[in-house]
Amino acid sequence: QPMAPVLYLQDKSSNFADGIEDDNWEEQAANRLTDAMQGLDERSQDIIRARWLDEDNKSTLQELADRYGVSAERVRQLEKNAMKKLRAAIEA
């Protein structure tokens, strides 16, 4: 018997429920990150976005140091503190 074309396209390795759960988890994680980011000051938000969230053009510590008129070491410290706050907020 001939099979419907849609059957050729189905992913046999996972089921529909798994896909829904994955999408739901990703959406929840994105929402937690957004909420956690709002708890940071504007400069820390910018540093996290520039270093971690901008896929196309990630900034270096030195580029951010030049932007904010501080040392690259200070940007690293700000980034570290912001990441610590984000982790705590997301895990809460």
TrEMBL record:
Domain RNA polymerase sigma-70: from-to ranges: 60-86
Which processes are annotated in GO (biological process)? Answer: DNA-templated transcription initiation
Q: Name the Gene Ontology molecular function terms of this record.
A: DNA-binding transcription factor activity
- Return the PROSITE patterns for the record: SIGMA70_2
Entry-linked Pfam families: Sigma70_r4 (PF04545)
NCBIfam families attached here? Answer: sigma70-ECF
| Family, similarity comment | Belongs to the sigma-70 factor family.
What is the designated name of this protein? Answer: Sigma-70 family RNA polymerase sigma factor
Q: Source species, please? A: Escherichia coli
